[in-house]
Amino acid sequence: MQNVISSNEERMKKTVASLKEGFASLRTGRASAALFDRLRVDCYGEKSPLNQVANISVPEARLIVIQPWDKNLIGEIEKAIRSSELSLNPSNDGKVIRISVPPLTEERRKELVKVAKSQAEQSRVSIRNIRRDGNDELKKLKSTSITEDDETKGAAELQKLTDAYIAQVNQVLEEKEKEIMEV
Questions:
Q1: Dist CA 98 CA 67 (whole Å)
Q2: CA 132, CA 159: separation in Å to the nearest integer?
Q3: Model's pTM, two decimal places?
């Protein structure tokens, strides 16, 4: 029974971690190197993550500086940024790419909050599905190795975990909403 609960708790942890990772790439009004975590650059015929071909720094609140390790990649990096859904306009001086992160409009902020809420809801659904899977596993165990009382206790424990992880999802969403809506 404890194996079922611990394996399902691990899956719930991964769901929350995945949500945080997804939120990191949601653009806010602030400059952040995490915006480029999913961006891939055509590097010598292969698509490589931007952070593996360049140094990304944030010297100011609204400025990102990307310094490629190979100066020949500047054009490819700039092209990848322009074609991404980040809506950023890079400029380069031949050595580094500078990206000024403009403040978001009120309309764009509301759109981003909707996207964040949608991702959070997907995570909540995923956590509930994990609980359902755990309850199914407990029912199977009841027919072979655990008592009905153990199944009931296990189901109650899974429900507590579910409530705790859904609360975490709500907390992460609330923080991201504040970050998106601040001017």
A1: 9
A2: 10
A3: 0.73
Quick one: pLDDT at residue 33? 82
Other CB atoms within 10 Å distance of the CB of residue 59: 9
Residue of 154, 152, 150, 168 whose CA lies nearest to 7: 154
69's enclosing H/E stretch is none
- What angle is formed at CA 181 by the lines to CA 126 and CA 17, rounded to 5 degrees? 30
In this structure, are residues 68 and 74 in contact, taking their beta carbons and an 8 Å threshold? yes
How do 46-49 and 40-43 pair as beta strands? Answer: antiparallel
Max CA separation in the chain (angstroms)? 71
CB neighbours (10 Å) of residue 91? Answer: 10
61 contacts 30 by C-beta, under 8 angstroms:
yes
Exposure string of 20-48, with b = 16+ CB inside 10 Å and e = fewer, is eebbeebbbbebbbebbeebebebeeeeb
Interval 98-112: pLDDT, tens: 998 888 788 888 888
